[in-house]
Design brief:
This protein is mainly beta. It contains four helices and ten strands, in the order αββββααββββββα. The longest helix is centred in the C-terminal third of the chain and has 12 residues. The two termini are 40 Å apart.
Length: 228
């Protein structure tokens, strides 16, 4: 079971430009956002954890977004992805075993269907290019080190996203969909499967209203709906 602390995993951080002075007014001029991600990919019976981050550009009343990010398997995810490789090599009398380390650069487009005061629904479509590095490890000291093998990967992800804007400062989001590998290799485990992530978001209003309260002496308004 995935620990609760590792599920609350994606933060919308600072990185805001061209935001109107009134933080309650809808922004249609565009702004930048940075994301830290922690995704889970269901590959057969295994839940594989991937870390990463992306930079996004948000625009329009519905807040469509384009992103560019980098993702790689966490140490725990690598162990799950390569589970049983070493043990199988020992049982079959091999002198080496291999570990695979996938990583990606991914571009995404988030088409927003609904952007209401407390809810947002969008369709994220992501396309990337990656590399699976396969490293050989020796089971005995006499085995010479073998060179790494590298394979190109072409991941595609499509799914849905629902966001609940709990307050003007903080929101919760759930993203899920399917991950396809367009370029498969015999030496690389098939990564096709369902993925998901839970997000905790910090909205721009938190930064601007905290700044105005601390440095300009303005009264800090309640973050809850309706606005007070």
């Amino acid at each position: 079971m995935v620990p609760f602390t590792s599920i609350l995993v994606s933060f919308l951080i600072a990185g805001i430009t061209q935001v109107p002075a009134d933080s309650l007014r809808k922004d249609t001029s565009g702004r930048w956002a940075a994301h830290l991600d922690n995704r889970y990919l269901l590959v057969g019976p295994d839940i594989i954890n991937a870390w990463g981050g992306s930079i996004g550009r948000i625009w329009g009343p519905k807040k469509h977004e384009v992103t560019l990010g980098y993702y790689f398997f966490s140490p725990r995810g690598i162990r799950h992805y390569n589970y049983g490789i070493r043990e199988q090599a020992l049982l079959t009398g091999q002198t080496t075993y291999s570990y695979t380390y996938p990583r990606y650069i991914i571009a995404g487009y988030w088409h927003s269907l609904i952007n209401a005061r407390q809810w947002k629904v969008s369709i994220p479509i992501e396309l990337g290019v990656g590399q699976a590095v396969i490293r050989q490890f020796a089971l005995d000291a006499s085995t010479a080190k073998l060179p790494d093998s590298r394979y190109t990967l072409l991941p595609v992800r499509a799914g849905g996203y629902v966001e609940w804007k709990v307050t003007r400062w903080v929101g919760l989001g759930l993203q899920t969909g399917y991950h396809w590998e367009l370029r498969k290799h015999q030496a690389v485990r098939n990564l096709d499967g369902v993925y998901y992530r839970v997000r905790v978001l910090i909205y721009p209003a938190f930064y601007f209203e905290a700044r105005d309260s601390i440095f300009k002496g303005k009264r800090l308004r309640s973050p809850f709906w309706p606005i007070k």
